[in-house]
Design brief:
four-stranded antiparallel sheet, globular, alpha+beta, 4 strands, about 25% helix
Length: about 80
């Protein structure tokens, strides 16, 4: 499994709806609200052999209320 972090910027007033929709899809291992430029951050484990972009697009990025995402690939946990 490959770990990635995905930050979500939500449309005004939609953060809780987006968070509920993300959680309901049972794709993320952890989901947090955050301060700063983004509203949410999720820790996602991508199955081996899956294309990260396709997996995220098909699993999460079609949720209404998301205005922007940033995905951070990880290499090693310390």
């Amino acid at each position: 499994m490959r770990c990635v972090f995905v930050q979500f910027r939500c449309q005004p007033g939609k953060t809780y709806e987006v968070a509920d929709a993300i959680y309901d899809r049972e794709v993320v291992s952890e989901l947090y609200s955050t301060s700063g430029d983004f509203d949410l951050i999720a820790k996602v484990y991508i199955p081996e052999g899956e294309d990260v972009g396709h997996f995220l697009t098909n699993s999460l990025f079609d949720i209404p209320g998301i205005s922007r995402t940033v995905t951070t690939m990880t290499f090693r946990a310390f």
